[in-house]
Amino acid sequence: MRRIKSFLIIICMLSIYAASFYGCGKKEWSDSHNNEAGLPEIVIGSDNYPPYNYVDTDGNATGIDVELATEAFKRMGYKARFIYIDWEDKKNLLADRTIDCAWGSFSMDGRENEYRWAGPYMTSRQVVAVNMESDIYYLEDLEGKTIAVQTTTRPEKIFLSKTDERIPAIRSLIALQKRELIYPFLSKGYADALAAHETAIRQYMEDYNIKFRILDEPLETVGLGVAFDKNDDRGIEKQLTEILNQMRNDGTEKKIISRYIPDADKYLEVDSYGK
Q1: Residues 203-210: what's their mean pLDDT?
Q2: Looking at domain 124-220, what is its CATH homologous superfamily?
Q3: Please, what is the end-to-end C-alpha distance for the chain in angstroms?
Q4: Please, are residues 190 and 174 in contact by the beta-carbon 8 Å criterion?
């Protein structure tokens, strides 16, 4: 009973935090990067996912993807406007044109035919993390364990599909709508492991001074892209892909990524990605 009460307290506190931080429903982020008056707007939907997308102490959208999007669309003659969305709703919000694109450390792999894509502009490792004292060291050690993931993400699909021969039968999969909830689920012992982008896990550990151990073997290496609705025939995704390639070749991408994470070059090996 005490364990259950502690669990409920954690959920309530996180819910209050999320409500105060984001407000209710979709919320527009202010953006100190944008001062291009008179330019047509591109509305970008994302959720909170440091170091890619988050809100700084002044209420401004910031992060790797925010800076990349702002610069890329500026070169294309647009002003980027960011709004916070429930990530699960991204496909519907694209379809009804509430947002023009979804940009937030979004894995293209396995979704190639679901959207029109710009990219990949970066690569990222999807990994499994455990508490420091855990007896889990390899993917095979996940047998009979409980794993926490965010809903509609690649890790959720990997565990649900049961097609990766390296991954044994697990006890249960906890799929949470809010990404930030997977970390306390692990640290408090409600899950034996979590799965997410390696960069996001490392950012969380740095921000909250907590230590997880990341397994050496990744679930997969994915390409990150920008998603547009399947029926969006404006061709923006093609132009954006060209601009992102230009930014990678002229060093802009590396400069931006290096402000948030070390070893930026290893995330820019997109030319050899998938080969």
Answers
A1: 94
A2: Periplasmic binding protein-like II (3.40.190.10)
A3: 52
A4: yes
Rounded CA gap, 243 and 118, in Å? 10
Dist. CA 92–CA 88, nearest whole Å? 9
Residues in the chain: 275
263 Cβ contact list (under 8 Å, min separation 6): none
Report how far residue 135's alpha carbon sits from residue 70's, in angstroms, rounded to the nearest whole number. Answer: 43
Q: Left if phi > 0, otherwise alpha if psi is -120 to 50, otherwise beta: which for 64?
A: alpha
Largest CA distance in the chain: 59
CATH number for the segment(s) 23-122+225-267:
3.40.190.10
* Whole-number Cα distances in Å, 94 to 30, 40, 240: 21, 18, 17
Hey, where are the domains in the chain?
A: 23-122+225-267, 124-220
pLDDT at residue 19 is higher than 50: no
- Tens digit of pLDDT for each residue in 75-95? 999 999 999 999 999 999 999
